[in-house]
Amino acid sequence: xxxxxxxxxxxxxxxxxxxxxxxxxxxxxxxxxxxxxxxxxxxxxxxxxxxxxxxxxxxxxxxxxxxxxxxxxxxxxxxxxxxxxxxxxxxxxxxxxxxxxxxxxxxxxxxxxxxxxxxxxxxxxxxxxxxxxxxxxxxxxxxxxxxxxxxxxxxxxxxxxxxxxxxxxxxxxxxxxxxxxxxxxxxxxxxxxxxxxxxxxxxxxxxxxxxxxxx
Length: 215
What we know:
The protein is an all-alpha fold. It is 62% helix and 0% strand. It is built from 9 helices and no strands.
């Protein structure tokens, strides 16, 4: 690890009075009172979700771990800049996304998310999951080989998207962020999120229609 401060609490000891606090209360408690247990609880809440996002976004577990550490180092350093009127979750994704982009630039590595699991039904948006939107790419139960082939083709298609479009696809369809949350993370209007998703689905549909997907 490059960071000198390691924020990786033992999940077996995370249950304490901070469990009942909101994310916002935890961050403000750390910012205003220096409550380290509040910070550790916040890390514990997001370690699996945020690390998973970074691992799939970067395509490399070691890079993801490093960026995860850098993300919470930035949270530690910049918590005084947090706007209490904001929600912590999209703010964390904003910090993590910026750190991931910086890491990609430093390492000249541009690998993209693996869509190895169903992502439908999590975003709270009007659209269905990515696989549904692509039209008939779900495999029948038990057809693991065909499902794996389909996922591989989807991964290649997603990887061919422009970076800005891929970011929206990952945040909305993989991480399940709402349109407004994705817009906040990327500092773009909600309408731009929707238009990029629309463009992504059109492009992916065109690409995958040329593939010999399992029937």
